[in-house]
Amino acid sequence: METYETVKEVPEAPAPKKKRGAWKAVVAAVLIAGVAGSTTVSVFNLVTLKSYIAKVEKEKNPETTEDYVKIAENYEIKPTTNISDAYISGDTSKLSDKEKETLDLAKSALKEMKIKDDMSDFDKEKAVYDWMTSSLQQDQGALTVIPNTQEDCDNPYGVLKYHNAVCVGYATTFRMFMQMMGIDCMVEHNTDKYHSWDLVKLDGDWYITDIYSDAGTGNYAHFNLTDNMFGQEQQWDHDYFPAADSLKYNMAYRNKKTVDTVYDLAKALREAMDEKLGCVMVGFKQDIKDEDAQIATAIASSIDNILMSQTYENMPYSVGSYNWVKDPDNGKYLFNVAIGQYNTTNGSEGLTEKQQEKVDKLVQKAFDGLKPVDSNGMGMTGEKEKIGEGNETVTEKDSSGSGE
């Protein structure tokens, strides 16, 4: 009891200074005191030391939060509930002029998305995803406003007005749309704080959606993923953010095709491309072993090489990422494939037919005369061109003729 009372009466140690490396000095002092002092002092110093180290570690790695987090040291995740609440209530009296303009831009965007009250939460989310991945590629702002776009690239105002955004801008804008429609949504960020994305709740389950990573493709490669799927790309605080473990509303899973063996994979992927699917999961009736997994990977790689080596009419596809996913219904493996571009718009958006025709002619004229070359450097005439010394072009006949 005497020892306990002595420890209890010792005055609280002064708050440590936030100085880099200061904990080392404290550790040394405590250890020296522990050796020279009594058992009572040693017990106190041990408690103080543990407490101090815990505090230092907490300062180095602060608790995870959703908002007011700096991403890439420049862009901050900020809440937009004041805007979504104003949309739901109809009361904009507490909004600033900038927030009111953001709300007006968001309302116009929702009209373009053709969101209807009788749509399911999934259909509403998909409409927002489709619009953001296709319509926000082009900066439609006038030249006079371009210098200002960088300032707001991390918030809905800049995203919707200037169509210029970093990942934080996409994530907070998507969350704002979800909250405007009464759908639970969070902005999640990785451990190293250089990237952010969204968590959206549908029918009681959470899903990961990364609009930024799909901007310009719109193929649903990062639409409603599970933790296991997205965990192959990013790391984050799983203790703070809710788990995403359902595939019900994952687009690739909804496009699922089932074949007999891995050798039927090529045919399944061709069908998916013909159906203009942005992504697909292929299931197999056979049990997948290591050798089968290697065969599937080789098939996907071979398809990608073929599509990349030649342009095919009405086939603007390529095999993007692919990986293995477990089917939650039966525990079997699914081959998950993202298929090139899907619902994107191109740089001709907004041009009249005559304007586009003029652009095509100008481009054709400017690049007229270029000779197509195959992968071996052989021209269509069978000649192989190479650069000689200086600026001279040396033409080398192929094996069917003699060199000059």
Give an overview of the whole structure.
Helices cover 41% and strands 14% of the residues. With 404 residues, it is of the alpha+beta class. It has a 4-stranded mixed sheet. The protein starts with a helix and ends in a 7-residue tail after the last strand. The model is unreliable at 1-44, 138-148, 344-350 and 377-404 (pLDDT under 50).
Please tag this protein with its features.
four-stranded mixed sheet, 15 helices
Q: What's the helix and strand layout?
A:
Layout: H1 2-9, H2 22-36, H3 39-60, E1 69-71, E2 75-77, H4 81-89, H5 97-113, H6 121-135, H7 146-149, H8 156-162, H9 167-180, E3 185-189, E4 196-202, E5 205-209, H10 211-214, H11 227-230, H12 251-254, E6 257-259, H13 265-274, E7 279-284, H14 290-309, E8 319-326, E9 333-339, H15 353-366, E10 383-387, E11 393-397
Parallel strand pairs: 6-7
Antiparallel strand pairs: 1-2, 3-4, 4-5, 7-9, 8-9, 10-11
Helix pairs in contact: 1-3, 2-3, 4-5, 4-9, 5-6, 5-8, 6-9, 8-9
